[in-house]
Amino acid sequence: MNTAESIKLRAQSMTLKNLIELYRLCRSAKHQLYICSKKTMCKIKDLIELEMFRMANWEKECLIVIEGKEAGTLVQKARSIISNSRAGTQ
Residue 58 falls within a domain, yes or no? Predict the structure, then answer.
C-alpha cells in the first residue's frame, strides 16, 4: 500500500545537488516526488522539471511530498541528505 510523507525545506536547503540526490533516491525506489510552494504544486517527472520548479519558485520554504511504499524511509533519508549538506557548509 502506498503512503505519502512530507518534509518542509527552506530555500537554502533547495540546492540543486540536494534536489538531484532526492530525485535519484525517489526514482531508484520507484516513488513519486511532488514539490509544493504557496503558488504551485508540481509532480516531478524528470530533472529538468525539478530545476525549473526550483528556479521559478524561490520562496522561503516549500513542501516536498514523497509517495510510495517506503515513503517514510525516504523522507528520513531526505532529512539526512539535507542535514549533511548543512554540516558541510558551516
Answer: yes
Instruction: Report the distance separating Cα 40 and Cα 1, nearest Å.
Output: 27
CA dist 28 and 60 (Å) reads 29
DSSP structure class, residue 14: -
Determine the longest span between alpha carbons in the chain, in angstroms. Answer: 40
Alpha-carbon span 20 to 51, nearest angstrom: 9
Task: Write the DSSP assignment of 30-44 as a string of letters.
Answer: T-EEEEE-SS-EEEE
60 against 21, higher pLDDT: 21
Model confidence pLDDT, tens digit, residues 27-39 = 999 999 999 888 8
Which residue segment(s) compose the domain that 36 sits in? 3-85
